[in-house]
Amino acid sequence: MGTLLRGGTVVTASDTVHADVLVEDEVVTTIARHIPPSDHTVVDVSGCYLFPGGIDPHTHLDMPFGGTVTIDDFESGTRAAAFGGTTSMIDFALHTKGDTLKNAIDTWHDKASGKAAIDYGFHVMVGDMNASVMAEIPDVVEKEGVTSFKVFMAYKNNLQADDETLFRTLRLAAEVGALVQVHAENGDVIDVLVKEALEKGLTAPKYHALTRPPEAEGEATARAIRLAEIAGAPLYVVHVTCAEAANAISDARKRGLPIYGETCPQYLVCDVTDYERPGFEGAKYVMSPPLRDKWNQDVLWNKLKNMELQAFGSDHCSFHLKGQKELGIHDFSKIPNGSPTIEHRMNILYHYGVHEGRIGLNKFVALTSTNIAKLFGLFPKKGTIAVGSDADIVVWDPSVKHTISAATHHMRADNNIFEDMTVYGKPKYVFLRGHKIVDHDSYIGAVGQGQFLRCGRFYPVQF
Ligand code: URP
Ligand code: ZN
Ligand code: ZN
């Protein structure tokens, strides 16, 4: 006896078809125009889209950062993700100076196991890339199922790696089938601008953006791409915010290079004027790279539409305004960077993208799920609705209209950067490997139901 999802419209990255879907033993076993009910549990999904469960490639749960710890742990963060239609995520295990990659990964297993509501894998966010850490990479790829490594070009005297280190990492990654991810901002330039601003007594949240200009992101992105080109390596640029960076990625792709880019909901619907909000409210929007002039949003939408950016991540890095963001009340450089976005990643792309006609349904699925599964070695177990794939299915009701608010969201943060946005579309049911975990506004899964996902080696994907 299985679960029969009856009467919906199945949407994958390539097709949109009216079909019934049968789920047995956690996987999809039949997709057909009409499947007889037999002794299956029948779920009426008419009027709804069936999307493959969302895969969030960029989250920071329970992570020490900016003098505090992100407020969502694996229990609250993954449950909130499920409410938004995300059934898998790849979280950044934080490696710090003096630590091994293996220990960072073990620490993240301890944080996640027994708590996660959805399936999860890890990247490593490398805090100090040195010879001994680099020497660990082949083993980590082979034995740990962790195949992507984030290197920082910003956060000087803290996480920032120099060009030699980045280049050596890229070359090694190419040899062992790993994917290097870069946080591309010129940290040296930013360091000068931040010091100068503080010397002048410019301490308000808006100076976070003014000291991290788009040119610093564009320069670092272009430099990382050139280093990857020399190394013969693929590269994944996280959280792309602006024309300067996005165009550098497009140019490289036109030259046939395996360069991939990710953007995030906040860069599509929030902008630099949010830092001007009264009082200290602008601090909610302090993230790196920062929000940009509004015209960049059209650039990013076009890049998504043409698949010149291929992945859509939340960069969920949540802090309370009270007590956490307030660490920087007298100094913008001390405001913990990041915002709570895991729950509304799919909502924002669906409403402003599909509902408002900027992108089609298949592209929505590609950007929120399929492309990510392919880039991080999870496809076709994850990222599609196909016979044999995990039955991670979001039954999405496009007719539901709702208003996003911190008062009703499921994330722990006391703020929501999408506050008051009224959007169409919402999950009616969410299935994780065939188990219904969300039913309308109720979470009906079990704490710890999420399983660890071993990511596969990188192979060049054509989009
Ligand atoms: O501001 C951000 N993005 N915080 C999370 C850490 C990072 O750089 O991704
Ligand atoms: Zn980053
Ligand atoms: Zn991040």
What does this structure look like?
The chain has helices spanning 74-83, 101-112, 131-144, 163-176, 187-199, 206-210, 214-231, 243-254, 265-269, 295-305, 345-355, 361-375; strands spanning 3-11, 16-24, 27-32, 41-44, 49-52, 54-59, 64-65, 68-69, 86-95, 119-126, 148-152, 179-183, 235-237, 259-263, 311-312, 393-403, 422-432, 435-439, 442-443. With 463 residues, it is an alpha/beta fold. The protein folds into two domains: 3-51 and 382-443, Urease, subunit C, domain 1 (Roll), CATH 2.30.40; 54-375, Alpha-Beta Barrel (TIM Barrel). α3 packs parallel to α4 and α4 crosses α7 (214-231). The model has no long low-confidence stretch (mean pLDDT 98). The structure holds N-(aminocarbonyl)-beta-alanine and zinc ion (2 copies).
The secondary structure category is: alpha/beta
Task: Report low-confidence residues grouped into runs of 5 or more.
Answer: none
Which distinct ligands sit in these coordinates?
A: N-(aminocarbonyl)-beta-alanine, zinc ion
Strand content: 15-25%
**Counting H and I runs of at least 4 residues, what is the number of helices?**
12
Helicity, as a percent range:
25-40%
How many separate domains make up the residues? 2
CATH topology of the largest domain: TIM Barrel
Globular, elongated, flat, extended or rod-shaped: what is the shape?
globular
Oligomeric state of the chains? single chain
For the termini, the CA-CA separation is 38 Å
- Going by CATH, what is the homologous superfamily of the largest domain? Metal-dependent hydrolases
Radius of gyration: 21 Å
CATH architecture of the largest domain: Alpha-Beta Barrel
Record field, number of beta strands: 19
Mean pLDDT: 98
Major sheet characteristics = 9 strands, mixed
